[in-house]
Amino acid sequence: MEQELPTHNIREKILAYLAEQENSIAGILKRLQRDGINIHRLILTGYLNEMVESGELRERSLTPSRVFSIQIPPSKDIYFITGKVCREIDENNDGDLALSVLRFLLDRPVFFRELERCGVSFPKKFRKVTSDRRSSYLKQLASTGIVVPTNNELIDPESVNQPMLMKALREIINQSVSISGRLQGNSRMNQTTLDQ
Question: What is the pTM of this model?
Fold first, then answer.
């Protein structure tokens, strides 16, 4: 007899399993059964498809299986954070700044598709580049769920405004990790002198 569980309990179990490691439908089904939850494979597939559509999970095909993993929330995605910070710092040149930031962080040329994911304007000062590692970059991005068209250009910044790059990197770190109270010049920090 199959155990009736509320939808949210099955969802929480799936998320807990996938937090440990990505898994196939068969692997998730075995884990559920080990925990005493007996549901039909088609019902589980329905849950997984719905979780993919809602953005909670990411799915990739490893023939003959479909493998599921937890989708990184947009607030933790490097493209989302880079775009947000670059728009805040310099709305008129956010594309050029985002290109410099991604070039620095990824230590490789950047695809136009990656800038699109940042939600920034088209960069004004860039140069097209060719790389013998292009296919490995495409495979690497595909493994993280980012599909880049094969004809998408690889680009590098023509020049880098170092002070703006450092400002953007500092803000990306600040928004990713709570360090705001430790930054010099932060209004919440009061300097104490020996006279006080």
Answer: 0.59
